[in-house]
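Per your request, structure below.
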């Protein structure tokens, strides 16, 4: 069978980099879906729904000769159950950081794997504590361009790391693809040698 071992239903360079880190050959096949939260949806339900929806959307669009496992993930930041999406602009980023500054929030990442017409899913939840972040630093951070496409307005693997006082849970999960849960899913598919070696 030619082509990638799996499809990654994402355009995220971070997720692709994490898959390469554990030796999983893949190609990108982003899923274009509506990522709006539903009314009264919990952060866990939100990321689980979107990860499964992304995996299913890509799987159903594959031609018969393209049928390989599809891996999808979704990440959100939440504070006291409130979902924080990507900041719409500087004012939005300032408002987010005003809420997150000096407090501990949760990062929810769901991973879904569609294979053989079935979808398996895993959830990773981590706690991230921010130091006090003055508005001037948020303004500087916004000029770097890093926060614009990140849930919660920061990247733990980038300049945003300077705001993180403590992290409990999965560092790769906070980045957007928890590797323990990912390897667990991939290891359940016969013939995925790279994933089996990652366990």
């Amino acid at each position: 069978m030619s082509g990638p071992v799996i499809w990654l239903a994402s355009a995220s360079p971070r997720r692709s980099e994490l898959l390469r880190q554990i030796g999983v050959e893949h190609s990108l096949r982003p899923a274009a879906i509506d990522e709006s939260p539903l009314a009264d949806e919990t952060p866990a339900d939100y990321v689980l729904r979107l990860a499964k929806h992304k995996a299913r959307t890509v799987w159903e669009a594959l031609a018969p000769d393209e049928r390989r496992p599809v891996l999808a993930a979704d990440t959100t930041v939440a504070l006291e159950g409130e979902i924080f999406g990507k900041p719409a602009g500087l004012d939005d980023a300032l408002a987010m950081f005003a809420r997150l500054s000096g407090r501990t929030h949760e990062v929810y990442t769901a991973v879904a794997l569609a294979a053989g017409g079935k979808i398996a899913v895993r959830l990773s939840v981590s706690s991230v504590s921010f130091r006090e972040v003055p508005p001037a630093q948020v303004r500087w951070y916004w000029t770097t361009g890093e926060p614009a496409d990140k849930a919660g307005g920061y990247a733990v693997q980038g300049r945003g790391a300077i705001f993180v006082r403590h992290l409990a849970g999965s560092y790769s999960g906070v980045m957007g693809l928890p590797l323990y849960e990912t390897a667990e899913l991939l290891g359940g598919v016969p013939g995925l040698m790279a994933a089996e070696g990652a366990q």
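Residues 193-199 have pLDDT under 50 and may be disordered.

Regards,
D.
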